[in-house]
User: Which sequence fits this backbone?
């Protein structure tokens, strides 16, 4: 256990400066999150231009005949004609290539969360994303010189580098953002995921029309520049920042730690793994990934197979749900912080209300979408509304880690995010088994309702057991007791050893 040398400040007023160092840190973390999601999604766009679709022997895709073809897809193949690429990769092989990134990403979640707790989060985040960005330049080379095997290796390494993004971002937010600003700051940072997707999808599509390698060269360069500025200008915490205003430093430290000393005790694994508030966050996170993947991955497939219309034919419609989630998450976050600052709502009540909007709202939209019949535009509208409401989760369970344990927030996020990613992988598997060979409206309704049930059950568990209070196992007072107890035991053992030596001689 190590203890900080910083003095403890008395109650200090909020700095008058509109844009302080903590705001700059928030903006940089937002850009880092956006960059991470650009790197995550650009391959799905690029691979369309890389593959020689004409040379691939494809089985006829099964369509449902309950709905008529849309005017945009009926007899208009020339409008969607795309120049074939150089690689003859089957659909299943393309799936392995796309999945290789996520194997690396999931594998490093918990290890980096533990390492960040011991050695600090900033360098792991900065250098991890630098690895991700630099290896983006090797994607075209790997594909051209080594084929799909080396391409998978490069994408795996990129995923390993991106592993720190969520746990380390959470750890830095815990050190920089006062409790009453967590909703809007945290939501702003994590909404960078939607912002990055909104930027990546249309821009990658445009670049792919001319040269698919340019996708990785451009975003690799942008990511590298961000990493350099992040490592150069950002610091681990307010105490180690040389240019932060003293009044802001005092304000952040006082708000986060009060009259307690800042300490870094061992990780209380037993207390964490037996904590109901932790499991409330874990289940909410798992439901979010499962429902989100269903909402964003399976609905377009439903529209293609059943409604006979692909949402991907229109770039704006493809990005619209992400845009709605980005905008709504920021609006909802300000409402959440207002609720807390007004004194009318506790952190616990605020988190539960806002998270309910995000997860119950998305669940209701999934159920409605399963009954929209052949109305494709109503389905797009429901999808957009559902993702917009879903933005409430950023001010709900997503920042709740920071409430219950500021010092171990990165560890908790690593645990929940890693588990939730596995839950997210179940969504396409469940949908595939349900609709295989019979993609009817009735079968797809099962897919949507199952996701809605997962949302409802886990959100309800969260509402029962979640809390916004700091947990007893993250109480700095216990660190002092542990420190003095350990000191006494060491002194007693030392005295016994001395008596043994004196008796011996």
Assistant:
């Amino acid at each position: 256990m190590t203890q900080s040398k910083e003095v403890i400040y008395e109650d200090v007023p909020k700095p008058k400066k509109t844009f302080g160092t903590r705001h700059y840190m928030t903006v940089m973390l937002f850009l880092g999150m956006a960059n991470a999601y650009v790197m995550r999604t650009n391959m799905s766009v690029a691979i369309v231009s890389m593959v020689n679709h004409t040379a691939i022997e494809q089985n006829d895709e099964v369509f449902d005949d309950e709905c008529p073809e849309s005017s945009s897809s009926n007899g208009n193949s020339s409008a969607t004609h795309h120049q074939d690429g150089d690689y003859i990769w089957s659909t299943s092989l393309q799936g392995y290539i796309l999945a290789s990134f996520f194997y690396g990403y999931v594998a490093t979640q918990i290890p980096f969360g533990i390492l960040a707790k011991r050695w600090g989060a900033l360098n792991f985040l900065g250098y991890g994303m630098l690895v991700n960005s630099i290896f983006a330049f090797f994607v075209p080379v790997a594909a051209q010189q080594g084929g799909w095997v080396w391409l998978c290796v490069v994408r795996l390494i990129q995923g390993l580098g991106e592993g720190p993004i969520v746990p380390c971002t959470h750890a830095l937010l815990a050190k920089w953002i006062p409790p009453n600003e967590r909703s809007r700051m945290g939501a702003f940072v994590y909404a960078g995921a939607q912002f990055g997707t909104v930027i990546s999808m249309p821009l990658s599509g445009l670049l792919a029309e001319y040269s698919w390698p340019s996708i990785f060269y451009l975003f690799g360069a942008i990511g590298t520049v961000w990493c350099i500025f992040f490592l150069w200008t950002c610091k681990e915490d307010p105490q180690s920042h040389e240019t932060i205003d003293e009044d802001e430093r005092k304000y952040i430290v006082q708000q986060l730690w009060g009259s307690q000393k800042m300490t870094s005790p061992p990780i209380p694994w037993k207390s964490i793994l037996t904590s109901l508030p932790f499991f409330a966050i874990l289940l909410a996170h798992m439901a979010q990934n499962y429902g989100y993947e269903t909402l964003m991955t399976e609905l377009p497939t439903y529209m293609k197979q059943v409604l006979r219309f692909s949402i991907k034919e229109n770039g704006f419609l493809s990005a619209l749900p992400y845009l709605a989630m980005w905008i709504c998450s920021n609006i909802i976050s300000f409402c959440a912080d207002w609720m807390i600052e007004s004194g009318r709502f506790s952190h616990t009540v605020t988190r539960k209300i806002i998270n309910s909007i995000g997860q119950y709202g998305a669940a209701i939209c999934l159920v409605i979408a399963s009954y929209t019949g052949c109305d494709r535009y109503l389905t797009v509208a429901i999808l957009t509304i559902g993702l917009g409401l879903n933005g409430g989760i950023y001010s709900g369970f997503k920042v709740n880690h920071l409430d219950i344990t500021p010092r171990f927030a990165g560890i908790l996020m690593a645990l929940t995010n890693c588990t939730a990613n596995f839950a997210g992988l179940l969504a396409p598997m469940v949908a595939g088994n349900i609709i295989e060979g019979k993609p009817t409206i009735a079968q797809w309704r099962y897919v949507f309702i199952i996701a809605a049930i997962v949302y409802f059950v886990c959100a309800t568990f969260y509402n029962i057991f979640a809390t916004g209070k700091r947990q007893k196992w993250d109480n700095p007072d216990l660190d002092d007791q542990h420190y003095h107890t350990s000191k006494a035991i060491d002194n007693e053992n030392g005295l016994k050893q001395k008596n043994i030596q004196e008796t011996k001689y």
Notes: Residues 1-9, 75-82, 482-505 have pLDDT under 50 and may be disordered.
